[in-house]
Amino acid sequence: MVFPASEVLDAWYWIAIDFGDSVDMAIVTTDAYISILLWYEDVEFDEFCDPDNPRKIKYDDILAASRRIAGTVVKTPCTRAHMSDKLGMEIYLKQEFMQYTGCFKERGVRNTLLLLSEEQKKIGVISASTGNHGLSMSYHTTQLGIPCIVVMPVRAPITKLTKCQSFGAKTLLHGENMAESKHYAMSLSKEKKLYYINGYDHPNVIEGQGTIGIEIIEQVPEVDAVLVPVGGGSLVTGIAIAIKHLKPDTEVYGIQTEKTYSMVEALKRNERVKITIDSTIADGLAVNLAGVNTFHNLKGGILDKMVIVKEDWVARGIMHLVEEERYVVEGSAAVTIASIMAGLFPNLKGKKVVCVLSGGNIDTTTLARVLERGMAAEGRLVKFKVTVSDRPGGMAELCGLLANLGVTLRDCIPERAWVKGDVFSVEMKVIVETRGWDHTKELVEIIKRKYKECVFPEMNEKQDKGPGAKRGPCLAPNPVCMQK
């Protein structure tokens, strides 16, 4: 691979040439530099995702895909959520994590593979993925006997990587992010004549994802709104086209996080814009540039609104789905329920709303971190410092006080060396678990009454602001939710 550098010396350019195991610097002339740029663009060119010739997705093709993949992917349940009464609306959860690979991606992959020519099926396919698309590619190519290579970023979740390998595909780790993995995968596809399948922008993939929209209307005929996670856009594009065709008055909303907002930015500027994505709880949405075909179809106004939800709310969404629904989902799936919990949809109170839970492939270590983050955000995990007597019984008195309050002690670290004043005092750094904010406030009041020196950091920051939190940007020309 060749990357142009920014430094220019008269008619000469610095470039970095990637030889796989090493990167060397070289100086080339302007003509050579232009040739390298053309080569680089040629590698990235995908005839099915051509910016000069975007594909219009039609409902008839989605319907055909629905019939084509019937029996080979799961028609997932869409059941009423236990959280409905608490959140003030009839919420139905479309459980795409029930697919064999734990993700909705199977629909688009299966549809695309079935449409390949017999010759191409023998040569094989290739794709780049952060995990879920790769899982679906691995599983369905193995089922159909098609050779497959999946290129994943080096930071891809371990769970998804190991599952991908267990399904039978050849996996390659390359690049720090999806953009680098994609470029490498496309260069291999040109070299080995493999069919490159864009996991979020290939027309046949979008058509396959749209089959979820058909199922939603069948399962919840009176649905008022559908909330869909948005990464590259294939899921929301397919669902929106199907929903608006079958029931035009149903509102369709796309949800992204504060770190994965490429589609929001694209629709706001009316052009595809690259963003920088670091670590995110919603790794399935970590696409730094909206798809050619998805953007082309969405900018026509089939979406009622795009919303950005903060990642702390996503953590809480995962936690509540585990506790109240007994569903284990990944961050990218929880953004839909998180946006409701954050109060971003006051216009949907009392209405029937379908939240698409797009996948359930989350690392156990990540899940553990998320659950603790969610508990802290809701005041159920509290840390504080308190200075107690270092004489016999001083620490026991504190523990007894916590026990009488019904508070669970999670961690307790004594600090003696840096305590100022009384040498017979010890500062305790304490982490406790409570039942929620009311219980936490009771704890704070009693600790402050009992001990002169105590500190509860971040209490103001972590309090639940509930409904009224900052709303996401509205991109519709005449948003339904703002009509009086």
UniProtKB/TrEMBL annotation:
<dbReference type="GO" id="GO:0006567">
    <property type="term" value="P:L-threonine catabolic process"/>
</dbReference>
<dbReference type="GO" id="GO:0009097">
    <property type="term" value="P:isoleucine biosynthetic process"/>
</dbReference>
<dbReference type="InterPro" id="IPR036052">
    <property type="entry name" value="TrpB-like_PALP_sf"/>
</dbReference>
<dbReference type="Pfam" id="PF00291">
    <property type="entry name" value="PALP"/>
</dbReference>
<dbReference type="InterPro" id="IPR044561">
    <property type="entry name" value="ACT_ThrD-II-like"/>
</dbReference>
<feature type="domain" description="Tryptophan synthase beta chain-like PALP">
    <location>
        <begin position="72"/>
        <end position="359"/>
    </location>
</feature>
<dbReference type="InterPro" id="IPR001926">
    <property type="entry name" value="TrpB-like_PALP"/>
</dbReference>
<dbReference type="GO" id="GO:0006565">
    <property type="term" value="P:L-serine catabolic process"/>
</dbReference>
<keyword id="KW-0456">Lyase</keyword>
<dbReference type="GO" id="GO:0004794">
    <property type="term" value="F:threonine deaminase activity"/>
</dbReference>
<comment type="similarity">
    <text>Belongs to the serine/threonine dehydratase family.</text>
</comment>
<dbReference type="InterPro" id="IPR050147">
    <property type="entry name" value="Ser/Thr_Dehydratase"/>
</dbReference>
<dbReference type="GO" id="GO:0003941">
    <property type="term" value="F:L-serine ammonia-lyase activity"/>
</dbReference>
<protein>
    <recommendedName>
        <fullName>L-serine deaminase</fullName>
    </recommendedName>
</protein>
<keyword id="KW-0663">Pyridoxal phosphate</keyword>
